[in-house]
TrEMBL record:
Record-stated family: Belongs to the mannose-6-phosphate isomerase type 2 family.
NCBIfam families xref list: GMP_PMI (TIGR01479)
Organism: Asaia krungthepensis NRIC 0535
Domain Mannose-6-phosphate isomerase type II C-terminal residues, every copy: 347-461
Pfam families linked to this entry: ManC_GMP_beta-helix, MannoseP_isomer, NTP_transferase
Name of the protein: mannose-1-phosphate guanylyltransferase
Span of domain MannoseP isomerase/GMP-like beta-helix: 291-343
UniProt superkingdom: Bacteria
Catalytic activity: alpha-D-mannose 1-phosphate + GTP + H(+) = GDP-alpha-D-mannose + diphosphate
A Gene Ontology molecular function term of the record: nucleotidyltransferase activity
Uppermost EC category: transferase
CDD domains listed in its UniProt record: cupin_PMI_typeII_C, GDP-M1P_Guanylyltransferase
């Protein structure tokens, strides 16, 4: 089971709520979501259940398809209610057919570099789960980390070699406390991954959070199918308490077990954490994109936009996107989240939204934004079709620069080739389709008194976005 609900704001400006870190290829050519799903496949497990919000459903479906995972069950949360309701929903879904099935619960945005070590440890966790325990992985600390919770190891499980009772869970400590904890072999980082039988999870949720059990069970029972997705009943799910699985169950159950682990795990919770696990040059730098360095040491520099030159500095994080630049000392990387909050309070859309917005048919990005006009680039994947729609406040002019478009304009159907254009007056009913074998790219010029994305009246949509 893969939880894909976070926004990853500590990795701003790359990770934003419109396209968070799990959808980015930060370590390999694959995205973090793809790497997570493929780990489950490599372990020989069943197809994944992914729990996510509605806005990301098409991104997740496409990324899983690209990774060769075609049978995932994608469960849509009507609202963010934290990890306990999400895990309960997946457990109820599994329990409909196999109550004693063992779930491996993990976040979509963590990194693991030692798969052999992971699978050995997973086997121990599965053995513990089969005995009725809710097992988690305790990661051997490599430094005094204040961004993670900690687990204190208790006595060994008599029936599962390599696993231990949990003495207690600890919240994220201050630096002084963390320094003391890493010197004590009983303490490990809390990975946030759990392995447990579906029926055991549901039993413990019913014991400690009966409202979650009651409301989520009904939300699952009353779910409805929507294309390749399963929508939880919003009325029932939204009544569920907003609480993490750690607070709801892990810290309260008498059946918690911890398996000590060291398999190169990181939650990639900051740019500094990403620097730590990434390959470095001779000066300790990690670079990505169009970057030039001179006498820089131990820096993380990434550019997804303009050429970026960094000179004569140490221990910096520099991240450049098409619409934002972030510079921080590596020691302050955890504070990026505070800056995102400031930008949000200031009403800056860059805090949460990328210039490039992905849709099930492709993507669009704004090139120029004026007082009464806007210029966009629109990319439509082969075989995809936009909704039949109209606007009350703007007219549009489409110029095809690559591929071939079929444009519906009121009662007419028009083929528009490269270097040709079509005008869509205000109020006309229109639709754009790419019938070809290559991507369709066009330049859209909007004009009118209001150019917001909410000035779209959808009359028909193959993706059920009405």
């Amino acid at each position: 089971m893969i939880l894909s609900g976070g926004s990853g704001s500590r990795l701003w400006p790359v990770s934003r709520s419109s396209f968070p870190k799990q959808f980015w290829p930060l370590l390999t050519e694959r995205t973090l979501l793809q790497e997570t799903a493929l780990r489950g496949k490599a372990a020989g497990l069943g197809q994944p259940i992914v729990v996510c919000n509605e806005a990301h459903r098409f991104i997740i479906a496409e990324q899983l398809r690209e990774a060769g995972i075609d049978e995932a069950r994608i469960l849509l949360e009507p609202s963010a209610r934290n990890s306990a309701p999400a895990i309960a929903a997946a457990a109820f879904l599994v329990a409909e057919q196999a109550p004693e099935a063992i779930l491996w619960v993990m976040a979509a945005d963590a990194a693991i570099t030692d798969l052999a070590g992971l699978f050995d440890t997973l086997g121990t966790a599965v053995d513990a789960a089969a005995q009725g325990y809710i097992a988690t992985f305790g990661i051997q600390p490599s430094k005094a980390e204040t961004g993670y919770g900690y687990i204190e190891r208790g006595n060994a499980l008599s029936d599962v070699p390599g696993a231990f009772h949990v003495a207690r869970f600890m919240e994220k400590p201050d630096l002084e406390s963390a320094t003391a904890l890493v010197q004590d072999e009983r303490y490990s980082w809390n990975s946030g991954m759990f392995v447990a039988r579906a029926d055991i999870l549901l039993r413990e949720i019913a014991t400690f959070e009966p409202d979650i059990h009651a409301h989520v069970s009904k939300a699952v029972a009353q779910r409805r199918s929507d294309l390749d997705f399963e929508r939880l009943d919003p009325d029932m799910f939204n009544r569920s308490p907003d609480i993490s699985i750690d607070y709801a169950v892990a810290e309260r159950t008498h059946h918690a077990a911890v398996v000590p682990a060291s398999f190169g795990w990181s939650d990639i919770g900051s740019w500094d954490a990403l620097w730590e696990i990434s390959p470095k040059d001779d000066e300790g730098n990690v670079i990505s994109g169009d970057v030039f360095l001179d006498t820089a040491r131990n820096c993380y520099v990434r550019s997804d936009g303009a050429v970026t030159a960094v000179m004569g500095v140490d221990d910096l994080v520099v991240v450049v996107t098409e619409d934002a630049v972030m510079v921080s000392h590596r020691d302050r990387a955890q504070d990026v989240k505070k800056m995102v909050s400031r930008l949000t309070d200031a009403g800056r859309v860059e805090a949460t939204t990328h210039n490039r917005m992905y849709r099930p048919w492709g993507f669009y990005e704004s090139l120029i934004h004026g007082d009464r006009f806007q210029v966009k680039r629109i990319h439509v994947d082969p075989g995809q079709v936009l909704s039949l729609q109209k606007h009350y406040h703007r007219a549009e002019h489409w110029v095809v620069v690559a591929g071939t478009a079929v444009v519906t304009r009121d009662d007419a159907e028009i083929i528009v080739r490269e270097n040709e254009s079509v005008y869509l007056p205000l109020g006309c009913t229109h639709r754009l389709a790419n019938p070809g074998k290559i991507a369709l790219t066009l330049i859209e010029v909007q004009s009118g008194p209001y150019l917001g994305e909410d000035d779209i009246v959808r009359l028909d949509d193959i993706y059920a976005r009405m």
